[in-house]
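Subject: Sanity check before I submit

Could someone independently write out the structure tokens for this chain? I want to compare against mine line by line before I put it in a report. The sequence has 137 residues.
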Amino acid sequence: MERTFAIIKPDAFAAGNAGKILARIYAEGFKVVGIKKLYMSKVEAEGFYYVHNERPFFAELTDFMSSGPCVVMTLEAEGAILKWRDLMGATNPAEAAEGTMRKEFGTSIGENATHGSDAPETAAFEIPYFFSGLELL
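---
Independent answer below. Compare away.
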């Protein structure tokens, strides 16, 4: 079994779609081994997205991610990283395939409803950023 990190972003939370996304996660066979609702501070968002700190969209991204509540999760499944990325769809909702989270719930490339680890190394940083080992059941 593999673990990946996922976020239901502030836009999806504010639109009332967190429950729908969570239901879909379970329906697709993921086990949720860690889950928290939280309000990320600007500093926490900057630390989480540090790999993008030289990119022109960094300030906008961290402003958005600290703009309201979100749901952070650790998901477990066979091939969880790729499985979650496939379920999320393309970063730009306009380019995402039908039936994906971002196509259904995203509104723009910046407000695209969900986040997920893109590699085992990323998941290894992202999961403990929000969860201690004792919180993962």
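---
OP: Matches mine. For the report I'm noting this point. The CA atoms of residues 36 and 72 lie 5 Å apart.
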